[in-house]
Amino acid sequence: ITGYTLVLIDGRRQGIGGEVGPNGFNEISNSFLPPISSIERIEVIKGPMSTLYGSEALGGVVNIITKKVSDKWETSVSLDALLNENKDWGNTYGASIYSSGPLMNDKLGLTLRFREFYRQQSNVEFTNGSGQRVPGDQAQSPTKANNFNIGTRISYLANDYNTFIFDIDFSRNHYDNKKGQLGTITKPGDKGSLIGGYTDIMEVDKFVTYLSHEGVYENFSITSGLQYNRVSNNGREVVGQATQPFLGENRDIVAEDIILDTKSVIPLGQNHILSVGGEYRLEKMQDKIANPTNFDQYLLAIFAEDEYSIKDNLRFTFGARYNHHEIFGNNVSPRAYLVYNPTDELTLKGGVSTGFRTPYANRLINGAYNYSGQGRFPIYGNPDLKEETSLNYEIAAIYNNDLFYVSATGFLTNFKDKISTQRYDKNNMIPGIGTCNADRCFRAINHGKVEYKGVELGAGISPLDNLNVNFAYTYLDSEVKEAQDKSVIGKPEQDSLKHNIMLKTEYSFYNKITPWIKGEWQIDRYMGDTNINREYYKDIFLASMGVRYDINKQWSINAAIYNLFNKSFTDGWESYQNSGTTTWVNTYNRIEEGRRIYISINGSF
Hints:
By secondary structure, this protein is an all-beta fold. It contains one helix and 39 strands.
């Protein structure tokens, strides 16, 4: 489910409990990632995983596992650039360094990491339906950005059984908004009001630190930790009516999480592996545009899961998580999964899992918590909001041998009480608020029910030792079952993609030069825009090719050409008349650069 995936680094949450990036910027709290050279592997778990991970894991989990502290000093460096053929798009440049090694024999280890990213200003123009070239605005023309991440980790091996880890990380994302590329800079409106709400720069800072203990003993293992996350957004100002408190001041958007958790894995006899644990999470947020300006909520949880080996080739996993939320009370998220291996090559599996996610605390107030339309239209909270929940069924078959693999997965997900907004026109009555005094107003609501069902297919073949061909296909059929807006019932969910196809081939020459080519198709993404009578966005096909060259054991070069056929996303506009005003709509669901060249130089010592 798009937007409902929990991102972890070494099992630690990277998202924040507060809404620090309103108006489409909230995913920025997940954009602070470590240097690629520090990553050992990435684990992806599809489907609801709230049993083990709690709220936010409603659509799955991505866990980025970084390298352990080395027993000898190792350093990796990388320089990269993305160069656009069309000079209207700004180029991007990056650099990173990762170093790890011992400080005191085998007892104390240190890791250092740093990443820098710079993007030039873009000046993209678009062709509208009349053939005119018009400047892009906001997300259509990426703005200048300068982002960095720096962190360190100290690992202390107290003895053969106990390890203590202290990690601290700071990131800053700096965006230029001098020309309103991200949003309209604050300016006077009618009757003493202010609209816009953006400053000339947007600067988002993130600070994460944790202390953890890992114990591996004869009969069980345990991992416990105390984590503190803080994200601040310094690029927004208070707008609204003249009576709005703090009008014209910085919104001082700050979110803080304190997380205390523990998990133990206990083998029980020959056939059971029990995982038990608990979590306490306190979420705080401040935003001066809301009243009250400060909110907080806590969550207590305990969970247990058992992997039962019925036979050597048959395993049954079942468990549940009990949550007590300060506002939403009690919730139980169970999960059950069966894995059967009739042969060494064939795996059959299937199960049922559940998920839930609570609303941001600021959306529960009985007043305005944000403004849309560049500061003109208030968005009101709703104290009666419910938590979002899902129930997922999955069945899969995987065959894998030395020559090829094939996989097929069928899934059905029932999604309930999705949080959305309802529109109210001027002078309409808003429940619990009163009359809408703006041209339009919005209020947070629970959307209703959506059903997702589909199939995922995967295949790969290695007919030669150095040749790999991989294929992936996803079919998704979504349908809105219940909704406040009756006109969308029976239709696909907005922006849902029906067909997604990927084909990639690579061949390695002498284990030194590895060229590859890749094609991606996106077909039938639902648009549902009745103004231009278009049901689906335009289909997209993108091709790319590249090569990796291992110069020696220390140095390698990666090069690639993305959007090989220079597909344009700037000429797909259609228009309609809205109260005598011509409104243009992009019939592609996203804006992407044309043909561009990527190159990176990587060294390891």
